[in-house]
C-alpha cells in the first residue's frame, strides 16, 4: 500500500470546485477543512488561496503514479504555467508532501521531477496546518513531527494568518 499526503491549493476561478474535483479523483481517506491563506513566497499581487490537505491510500499506486495523477488533475483544471511567476496564481496546484510505502517507510526521491518529502513543506503553514488537522501524529520525514514544527515562531505567525473556513468533503461523497 502507498499512502500519500497531498497539499492542494487554488486561487483562480472557482477555487472550491477545482478542489472538490481533485479530491474526488484521489478517493481520499481524510480531507481537511478548507483554509483561506495569504499568498506564500513573495508574489503578493494575487488572490488569496484555498488550501487543503488530503490523505489517500492505494495499494496499486506508486509515488510516480500519484505525481502523474496530480499533474493530470492540474491540467484538467486548466492550469497554465507562467514562467515569469514561479509562485504565481493557479487554478489548481497538487503537491505530494510525503509518501509512505508498503512497510510504512517514507519514500525518498531527489529527482527534480519528484522530490520527496516535499523540500519546502516544513516552511509552509498552508501545508502543515491542514495536515495536522487531519493527522495529529503527522511526521515530515527528516524534519520531525508537524506538531513540533508548528511551534517555530515564524511558522506560528503564518499559521495565525490562515483562516479555517468550512468542510469541503463529507462521508456522503464516498
Ligand atoms: N513532491 C512534489 N510534488 C509535486 N510536484 C513535484 C514534487 N517534486 C517535484 N515536483 C515537480 O515540480 C515541478 C513544478 O511543479 P509546480 O509548477 O506545481 O511547482 P509549484 O507548485 O509552483 O512550486 P512548489 O513545488 O514550490 O510548490 C513539476 O513539474 C513536478 O514534476
Ligand atoms: N497560500 C499559498 N501560497 C502559495 C501556494 C499555496 O498553495 N498557498 N502555492 C504556491 C506554489 O506551490 C506558492 N504560494
TrEMBL record:
SUPFAM superfamilies reported in the protein's UniProt record: 6-hydroxymethyl-7,8-dihydropterin pyrophosphokinase, HPPK
EC number: 2.7.6.3
The 7,8-dihydro-6-hydroxymethylpterin-pyrophosphokinase domain, residue ranges: 6-135
InterPro entries in alphabetical order: Hppk, Hppk_sf
Family matches, as CDD domains: HPPK
Catalytic activities: 6-hydroxymethyl-7,8-dihydropterin + ATP = (7,8-dihydropterin-6-yl)methyl diphosphate + AMP + H(+)
Known pathway: Cofactor biosynthesis; tetrahydrofolate biosynthesis; 2-amino-4-hydroxy-6-hydroxymethyl-7,8-dihydropteridine diphosphate from 7,8-dihydroneopterin triphosphate: step 4/4
Molecular function per GO: 2-amino-4-hydroxy-6-hydroxymethyldihydropteridine diphosphokinase activity
Protein keywords: ATP-binding, Folate biosynthesis, Kinase, Nucleotide-binding, Transferase
Pfam families documented for this protein: HPPK (PF01288)
Protein's UniProt name: 2-amino-4-hydroxy-6-hydroxymethyldihydropteridine diphosphokinase
